[in-house]
Structures are given as structure tokens and as C-alpha cells.
Amino acid sequence: MAQIFDRSSNALARASLVLTGLIVIALGVTLDQLQRSPWVTRQGQRPDQPVPFSHKHHVQGLGLQCQYCHVTVEKSSYAGIPPTKTCINCHSQIWTNAQLLEPVRSSWATGQSLVWTKVHDLPDFVYFSHEIHVNKGLGCSSCHGRVDQMPLMYAQNTLQMEWCLDCHRNPAKNIRPTGEIYNMAWESPAEDRPVWCSVGDEKSGLPTAQSVNCTTKDPATIPAEVASLNMPSLLRTAALVSDAGTGVTALNQYHVEYQKFTSQDELGHFLVDHYKIRTPKELTSCEVCHR
Ligand code: HEC
Ligand code: HEC
Ligand code: HEC
Ligand code: HEC
Ligand code: HEC
Predict the structure, then answer these.
(1) pLDDT in tens, 46-73
(2) Ligand nearest to the CA of 278
């Protein structure tokens, strides 16, 4: 056969093999990119909604708290979307004739809920719960971004497995004091932006995160009575009860020691310890999210 195919066709065959290989790789890379692209994950997209509801106006402009509308975010897996009644509380008086709000009024009149398009939507085979994240010091903005600056809602992150795992492998880099979870403008501590934390009596029966008390104001400048008033209420009651009879002066005797943090690394590791966060190995095992 050697005389039929000369040397050049041999080279040609080799070249075409290499070419096929390259095409396969390129295809693989493209599909992988596609799978992660905003087109598939819908990251950053603003879907059409029955009403162009603006978080920017209602949160930043009017100063409404997230829980005013997302009432179950701390105690259930779902944050929840508010019913029409919540809008009507105000919009029976404000902007009552606006065309934009017609769907809200007719929903109220007919009793038919508004149908909002989900912006974040995990597949059914993934287990997720707001309750644990929020109670262990993950702020809304760590996962949803600056909602207070969004005229229309969009997903800041992909919600893909890799995104979840990236945090589960090292939660310390994202954890903040639980008192700051609704603070949209929260920034990690720094030399010129320290955070002070004290640890209460962990045997008091409080949920772990609640026995830690953090502040962004130098506790040395806060009078002792106020510092102890800032303590979790159950602890305070315990302090008062144990000193019953001596009254307010007892508060002064309650000694609170604060530790100062000037980097996310230090604060994160302190909180991971005191909030009793599981190890990365435990948090990345498949059963955590696929039950
Ligand atoms: C006045 C009521 C109201 C307040 C206050 C409010 N929201 Fe919302 N939120 C809504 C409504 C209505 C929707 C559904 C429409 C939409 O997606 O824009 C929504 C949707 C969302 C979604 C996307 C839901 C989805 O479909 O995936 C997130 C995330 C969210 N809100 C976070 C927040 C955060 C964080 C705050 C506080 C900074 C907040 N919201 C304050 C009413 C409110
Ligand atoms: C606490 C009162 C309050 C609640 C609750 C409230 N709104 Fe509003 N809303 C306002 C005010 C005030 C304005 C006018 C804001 C402005 O012009 O800056 C407004 C404006 C609007 C507008 C006009 C566009 C804009 O953002 O300026 C829309 C649409 C709207 N609201 C929808 C809703 C919906 C939907 C809900 C329920 C999920 C809701 N609002 C709940 C007070 C409220
Ligand atoms: C650890 C990341 C994370 C944090 C922190 C977080 N969320 Fe979410 N949020 C998600 C994910 C993931 C979804 C999609 C859940 C699904 O599809 O089942 C979601 C969905 C939502 C929704 C849509 C309705 C629902 O419950 O599914 C709202 C509203 C919402 N989040 C509000 C908030 C608010 C308010 C906070 C802060 C108090 C917050 N989230 C904190 C990740 C987070
Ligand atoms: C920014 C950090 C962060 C992100 C992002 C994040 N998590 Fe978590 N997750 C945590 C922390 C911290 C805990 C609490 C661990 C503990 O208390 O041991 C946790 C706990 C959990 C738990 C355990 C709940 C339980 O009751 O055992 C599940 C399930 C979970 N996360 C699912 C997810 C999923 C799914 C995603 C992505 C859609 C996600 N998480 C994204 C930080 C994060
Ligand atoms: C922290 C939560 C979390 C953990 C831990 C986790 N997954 Fe996932 N997994 C997810 C999420 C979220 C998705 C959905 C991704 C999407 O919608 O693109 C997913 C999707 C998947 C899929 C579907 C294919 C895909 O990539 O979309 C498979 C298969 C899977 N996971 C296997 C595993 C295995 C095996 C483990 C253990 C080694 C594991 N997962 C651990 C959150 C997790």
C-alpha cells in the first residue's frame, strides 16, 4: 500500500488528527463556558415583572428593612415574597392613580396574587436554607449584592455549585457579626475600620451566635452601663437576676471584655470558632446540599 499513499498524505493524516483533537477541545471549552455563561445561569438578568418594583426606591429611598417584606428570612428556608397586602399598606394612599401600580390594585381588588418571576431559582435537587446562613453571620449582600442600589432585581451571583463550594471551603472570608447581616454597606474590618467583639457566657443556653456581641464603635468610649445594655437580652437578664436587689449598680459590675479585630481574616476565624461553624470537610460533603 505504501506506493499509493506518498509521504505527504501521511503528514496530512497526522495534521487532520491534530485538528480534530483541537476542535473537540474547543467544543468542550465552549460548552463549559456556555454552561457558566449568564445566558444559562441568568446571572445579571432583569426578567419582566408584573410591576417594575424598585428595591433602590423602597430600601435606600424610603429606608424600609428587608424583613418588612421578606418576613421569614431568619426563621425558614425561604425568605418569602410579600403579599399584595404589604404593598397596599402604603399604596392605598401613595401613588393611588399611577398606571404602573394598576396590577397591584387589581390584585388587591380580585384577591389574585401578583405573579412575580423568580430571579433566583435553584434546581429542586439542591437543599438551601436562609435560616442557617443568616443566623451564622452571612449578610444578604454577601450573596445578593447591593440590593439597596438595584432599581430592578437581578442575580449578582451564578448560584452554581462551584459558587456555594467556594464559600463552604472557607467561610471565614465572608462571615460578619450577626448584627450586621442587613447592613448593605458592610465592609470587612481594616486598620482604620476595626470591629470589637466580646463573648458572653456560652453555657447560658443562648443559640451560639447570640452569645457573641460585636460593635464597630470603640467600647472604651462607651460607658459601662450602655455596654452591658448592648449585651444579648437573655444574658442581661441573667446578670440582673443574679444580682437582684442591688439594682442598676449591678450592671456596672458586669465586666465585658472586648477583643479588637482589624482584618477579615482575624474576625472571620474568631467568628467561625464562636459561631461553631463546621469544618470545610463537613461543609463540602455532598449530603449537605444533596439530601
Ligand atoms: C417593600 C417591600 C420589599 C422590601 C423592603 C425588600 N424587598 Fe426584596 N423583594 C420584594 C418584592 C416585591 C420582590 C419580587 C420582585 C422582584 O424580584 O423585584 C423582591 C425580590 C427580592 C429578591 C429576589 C427574589 C427572587 O425572585 O429571586 C431578593 C434577593 C430580595 N428581594 C432581597 C431583598 C433585600 C436584601 C432587601 C433589604 C435590603 C429587600 N429585598 C427588601 C419586596 C421587598
Ligand atoms: C412603606 C410604604 C411602601 C410600601 C410598603 C410599598 N411602597 Fe411602593 N412606593 C412607596 C413610595 C413612597 C413611593 C414613591 C417613591 C418615589 O417616588 O421616590 C413608591 C413607589 C412605587 C412605585 C413607582 C416606581 C418607583 O419605584 O418609584 C412602584 C411600582 C411601587 N412603589 C411598587 C410597590 C410594590 C409592588 C410594593 C409591594 C411589594 C410596594 N411598592 C410597597 C411606598 C411604599
Ligand atoms: C448564603 C447565600 C445567601 C444569603 C446570605 C442570603 N440569600 Fe437570599 N437566596 C439565596 C439563594 C441561593 C436563593 C435561591 C433559593 C432557591 O431557589 O431555593 C435565595 C433566594 C432569596 C429570595 C427569593 C425567595 C426565596 O426565599 O427563595 C429572597 C427574597 C431572598 N433570597 C432574600 C434574602 C435576604 C433578605 C437575605 C438577608 C437577610 C438573604 N436573602 C440572604 C442565597 C442567599
Ligand atoms: C458566603 C458563604 C456561603 C455561601 C455562598 C453558601 N453557603 Fe451554605 N453555609 C455557609 C455557612 C457558614 C454555613 C453554616 C455552617 C455551620 O453552621 O456549620 C452554611 C450551611 C449550609 C447548609 C447546612 C444547613 C444545615 O442545616 O445543615 C446547607 C445545606 C448549605 N449551606 C447550602 C448552600 C447552598 C446550596 C449554597 C449555594 C446555592 C450555599 N450554601 C452557599 C456559607 C455559605
Ligand atoms: C454547598 C452545596 C453543595 C455541595 C456540598 C455539593 N453540591 Fe452539587 N450542586 C449544588 C448546586 C447549587 C447545584 C446546582 C448547580 C446549577 O444549578 O447549576 C449542584 C449540582 C450538582 C450536580 C448536577 C450537575 C451540575 O453540575 O449542575 C451534580 C451531579 C452534583 N451537584 C454532585 C455533587 C457531588 C458528587 C457532591 C459531593 C462531592 C456535591 N454535588 C456537593 C450544591 C452543592
Answers:
(1) 888 999 999 999 999 999 999 999 999 9
(2) 4
102 versus 4: which is more confidently predicted?
102
Q: What is the pLDDT of residues 78-106, one digit of tens each?
A: 999 999 999 999 999 888 888 899 999 99
Distances (CA, A) of 38 to 27, 41, 162: 18, 5, 15
In angstroms, rounded to a whole number, what is the distance separating the alpha carbons of residues 95 and 100?
A: 9
Give the nearest ligand 1 atom to 64 CA.
5
User: What cell does 101 get?
Assistant: 401600580
To test the ligand 1 pocket, which listed residue (58, 153, 157, 159) has its Cβ within 8 A of the most ligand atoms? 153
Cα of 77 vs centre of ligand 2, distance in Å, is: 26
- How many angstroms separate the CA atoms of 90 and 149, rounded? 21
Among candidate residues 193, 196, 164, 165, the one with its CA nearest the CA of residue 271:
196
Which residue from 142, 144, 188, 189 is spatially nearest to 168, judged by alpha carbons? 142
Expressed in angstroms and rounded, the spacing between residue 68 Cα and the centre of ligand 3 is 15
